[in-house]
Amino acid sequence: MKKKINRQLMFISSIAVVVTVLLMAVVFYRMLQAQVIEDLRVYAHMVAKSDLPASLENMQEELKKEAMRVTLVNDDGNVLYESDADVTGMDNHLERPEVQKAMQYGEGQSVRQSSTMGKNTFYYAILLDDGSILRVSRDSHSIWSILFRSLPVFLVTLILLLVVCVALSRYLTKSLVLPIEQMAADMDHIGEANVYEELVPFAETIRAQHEAILSNANMRQEFTANVSHELKTPLAAISGYSELIENGMASGPDVVRFASGIHQSANRLLTLINDIIRLSELDVMKQTEPFEEISLYELARDSVEMLQIRAEEHGVILSMTGRPCSIHGDKQMIEELIYNLCDNAICYNNPGGLVSVTADTEEGRVFLRVKDTGIGIPKESQERIFERFYRVDKSRSKSTGGTGLGLAIVKHIVAVHNAEISLDSEIGKGTEITVTFASPSRANAPK
Question: Is 20 in the same domain as 132?
Fold first, then answer.
């Protein structure tokens, strides 16, 4: 990081120095141009006031001293007088830019580059009363020759500035990075360190992410331990029953009973594996396609009809209320959510208990509510029931075939749909779980 900052500072400094010198050269050259043109203008008007062309012959020495040339051109463009050359054989000057401007506007000027890159010739022409044109010119250094002549000074200055920039960049880099290094060395006491105010939220985010990573690692470790434990029980039962049958220690009714035990354990194992796979899929799932519009009422009604036989097996009355309402979501996930909530309400109910499923709207938002008259959930357990493998009544969960993952799956589905879930439960009176769905615009937003 330090090397990168140093390189960038050096690069910026070098560019700044070069650009500054070039800009100064351009500015000075513009000033030089303006000064030369002004000198030519003053000199042209001074010469125009004299007796032309006789006075020009007397000005030869002065013209050479001032390094100026004077040309007198008639209204046809023919050269009448040239202070620095023989007019014989000179071409017509009518097409010269400064002459044309003078004939049109009274005065004109132009700059022409000489055959070499080292000189530019400045021209200034004025229209005289008799229609002839008086032109004054002078050679001056071009911008390239000025830069070339200034090159030694420029290089020395550049080297000195770069040396200063190196020292400053190192000092600035050290002072810039020092608070960051202090912050990185002790993330737990950011407030006590002399760090940049703008970096405090960033550091807090990193620390929160670090804590979240540790928490997730602990959760995964706990999840792995729970999976191993949950798989061990049905596998041990299957192994035990099959070993008894294999060794001929079971006969007649015992074989049927042991086979039934193997069947139940295998079903529990399959259910557990399916729930684990489904939970893993939800963990890595990212919504990339917009949700479709689905009828929550119809899905809930179909789930209630499908679960009627299971409810009758547990001696529970399952009913459906509400009115037609729709949401934007994934149909398969919503079916899974409804099934898990209803199945939990049935399994953890009392014989003769009630389960009421409601799909309706309230204050402009669609909700699904599953209410039962079952055993209820203790206050101290209500915040944990959505954790994986957490069971309020472990013995009852195993007897009903529960894996402890149903509500964890519900929690993931609720998160994917940007929905909200609330719980109201009391021991001995029952449980009410409500899922309130997001508005269509939020529901369609990819996560």
Answer: yes
Q: Could you read off the pLDDT of 273-320 as tens digits, one per residue?
A: 776 777 677 666 665 557 899 999 999 999 999 999 999 999 999 999
> How do 133-141 and 430-436 pair as beta strands?
unpaired
Helix (H) / strand (E) containing 435: strand 430-436
Q: Are strands 326-329 and 292-295 parallel, antiparallel or unpaired?
A: antiparallel
Structural domain boundaries, residue 340: 289-443
311: number of Cβ within 10 Å: 22
State the amino acid at position 249 in one-letter form: M
- The share of the chain scoring above pLDDT 70, in percent, equals 81
The number of domains in the chain is 3
If pLDDT is split at 50, 70 and 90, which confidence band does 349 have?
very high
Return the ∠ at Cα 219 (arms to 217 and 225), rounded to 5°.
105
d(CA 403, CA 390): 9
d(CA 302, CA 352): 22
**In a shared domain, residues 227 and 97:** no
Same structural domain for residues 279 and 293? no
92-126 tens-digit pLDDT: 888 899 999 999 999 999 988 765 455 788 899 99
Q: Would you state the structure tokens that stand for residue 306, as one six-digit string?
A: 């499908």
Cα separation of 53 and 76, whole Å?
17
Alpha helices in 186-307 (DSSP H): 199-246, 253-284, 296-306
Query: Tokens standing for 291?
Result: 């949700």
- Provide the CATH number for the domain around residue 256: 1.10.287.130
Distance between CA atoms of 310 and 307, rounded to whole angstroms? Answer: 5
